[in-house]
Amino acid sequence: MSNNTADPLDIHLGIRLRRLRNRRGFSMERVAELIEVSQQQISRFELGKNRLSAAQLFRLARGLNVPVYWFFEGFEENAEELGRVRNVARETRDGWQASADEDLAQALLSHWRALPNDRQRRKVVELVETLTAI
Questions:
Q1: What is the topology classification, in CATH, of domain 1-96?
Q2: N or C: which end of the chain has fewer CB within 10 A?
Q3: pTM attached to this predicted model
Q4: What is the C-alpha separation between 16 and 33, in angstroms, rounded?
């Protein structure tokens, strides 16, 4: 990939960031404060022109109240990129697969975090406790 071509993952992350920022009603300036960068830098992230660091992505997820994996949902690797990674690593990536239970647990956690207050979160915990006691 040339230096002038945006990485498909960076573009995907930027689109997800913009969508979430708008959904939460945050300005670019407010999001920039979360990770201590300029508003212009947020714009470049959202356009996929600059790459988010792992630390920035982690802080964004915490500040915008989503799990980190939320940013990656819907991203599909293309065959060329996957082949390049396999060639460099000299191995396949078939060794680890998320189980359906892990996926469900992450989805439940994501929805639980999206609840607007502690009272509702406690009610969900009570419901789960009741269901597991049956």
A1: 434 Repressor (Amino-terminal Domain) (1.10.260)
A2: C
A3: 0.61
A4: 18
